[in-house]
Design a protein that fits this description.
With about 80 residues, this protein is an alpha+beta fold. The chain has 1 helix and 5 strands; from the N terminus they run βββββα.
């Protein structure tokens, strides 16, 4: 089950879990920190900027894009 606690969401995408935190930024944009809770590397994740109101579906699409670029051997983004 997905939960929202204040400015923090816990989201599941498949068997993976992420904590999504919202931080204010300049103007109408906010920073979203995505922490991969079930990943092999503690504290690893990614960040994005966007408007304040993002739906769970939008967050999950970003997470799917991130996971698609993960090297299964290392658990990190594939290097170019």
């Amino acid at each position: 089950m997905d939960a929202q606690v204040g400015r923090e969401r816990l989201l599941s995408v498949g068997s993976e879990r992420f904590r999504v935190r919202l931080r204010p930024r300049h103007g109408p944009l906010f920073e979203y920190d995505y922490e991969w809770l079930t990943g092999p590397n503690a504290g690893y994740g990614f960040g994005m900027s966007g408007p304040f109101e993002q739906s769970d579906d939008e967050h999950k699409a970003r997470i799917r894009d991130f996971l698609a670029d993960i090297d299964p051997a290392t658990g990190y983004l594939v290097e170019d």
